[in-house]
Structures are given as C-alpha cells and as structure tokens.
Amino acid sequence: MKVSDIMTSAAATDSPSDSVGDAAAKMRQQQTGSLLITEGSKLLGIITERDVLRVVAEGKDPKTATIGDEMTRDPVTIEPDTSLKDAADLMFKHWFRHLPVVDTSGDLVGIISTRDLLRMVSAGMAEPQNLQALTGHKLARDIRIERIEAGDLD
C-alpha cells in the first residue's frame, strides 16, 4: 500500500501571521493535531499540538506568539507513491505524528498521521494476512506453524 491510499487529502491549513492561540482553536475545531502553513499550494511549515505546548511551557503568550515564529519551517515531507512502511519508518525515526505529503513539484497534496497508520494496523488485526501483506513480515504464530508443519519441533 502507498501513502496516497490512506492520506487525508483535505489537510487543515493556516497563515504564518495568525497567532498560536488561533492555531490551537482551529486544531480543536477541526479535530486535528497539526496545521500546515502554506503559501498557495507550497508548504512553508507545520505547527503541531507539541508546538502549542512548547509555547505555553516557555511562558509565551499564545495570543501574541505567531505561527510563523513557532512553526517548523521546511518540514520533512513524503510523496504520495511512497510505501506505508517507508512512511511509518520515517515517522517513527523522527518521532513525527504528522507528515505532510507533497507531489513531485512540491505542491501540498495531503497529510498522513500516526492515526492513519494505526487504523491500518487495527484493520490488519482482524485479518492477519492483510497485516502481513502490509508489513512484509510474517506473524510469529505463522512462523511457528510453518516450523511444525516442516517437522522442526526443537
């Protein structure tokens, strides 16, 4: 499976001149943990719930701190045809919960989240063969059965 199979195409966006407080309100309203900051179709940055927490923890006023000052500029991105395994590896390596998706010309096309990946894992739990196809790994149960069938009873 590819990122394009599960990504959210309609990503929530905001302006760098808005306040962090406005961003937090928008995230709550749209039930998302991040906002993508764009200029036209080009991605400038991302602000996440972690950024909002950092602003508050550092004693800054969320009503006056701007998204442009607090966002992650030029965030790591991924393309829609990237495999879900590669996307998950990248997200887990960098501790990302949200990963913007851009096309080959750099235009924003969506976002993938850990929630999207977890939904796939959850679906795979109902049908283990689907999870195996997704990850490329055999379940320990299946490996044991193969060993037993081959007469390897150690």
What can you see in these coordinates?
This protein has eight helices and six strands. The chain has a four-stranded mixed β-sheet. The model has no long low-confidence stretch (mean pLDDT 87). It is α+β, with helices and mostly antiparallel strands and 154 residues long. It has helices spanning 3-6, 20-30, 49-57, 67-70, 84-94, 114-126, 128-135, 140-149; strands at 13-14, 34-39, 42-48, 72-73, 98-102, 108-113. It starts with a helix and ends in a 5-residue tail after the last helix. It is 45% helix and 18% strand.
Question: In terms of topology, how is this protein built?
Answer:
Layout: H1 3-6, E1 13-14, H2 20-30, E2 34-39, E3 42-48, H3 49-57, H4 67-70, E4 72-73, H5 84-94, E5 98-102, E6 108-113, H6 114-126, H7 128-135, H8 140-149
Parallel strand pairs: 1-2
Antiparallel strand pairs: 2-3, 3-4, 5-6
Helix pairs in contact: 6-7
Short description:
The protein has 154 residues and is α+β, with helices and mostly antiparallel strands. It has a single domain, classed as Roll (CBS-domain), CATH 3.10.580. α6 crosses α7.
What labels describe this entry?
alpha+beta, CBS-domain, four-stranded mixed β-sheet, two-stranded antiparallel sheet, 6 strands, elongated
Strand order of the largest sheet: 1-2-3-4
* Rg, alpha carbons: 20 Å
Which blocks of ≥5 consecutive residues have pLDDT under 50? none
Helix content: 40-55%
Number of helices: 8
What is the SS-derived class?
alpha+beta
Instruction: Summarize the biggest pleated sheet.
Output: 4 strands, mixed
Tally the structural domains: 1
The portion of residues forming beta strands comes to 15-25%
- How far is it from the N-terminal to the C-terminal residue, by CA? 36 Å
**Tell me, what's the shape?**
elongated
What's the SSE pattern?
HEHEEHHEHEEHHH
Can you name the CATH architecture? Answer: Roll
The CATH homologous superfamily is named CBS-domain
Which CATH C-level class is it? Alpha Beta
Mean pLDDT: 87
Beta strands, count: 6
Kindly report the oligomeric state of this protein. Answer: single chain
- CATH fold assignment: CBS-domain
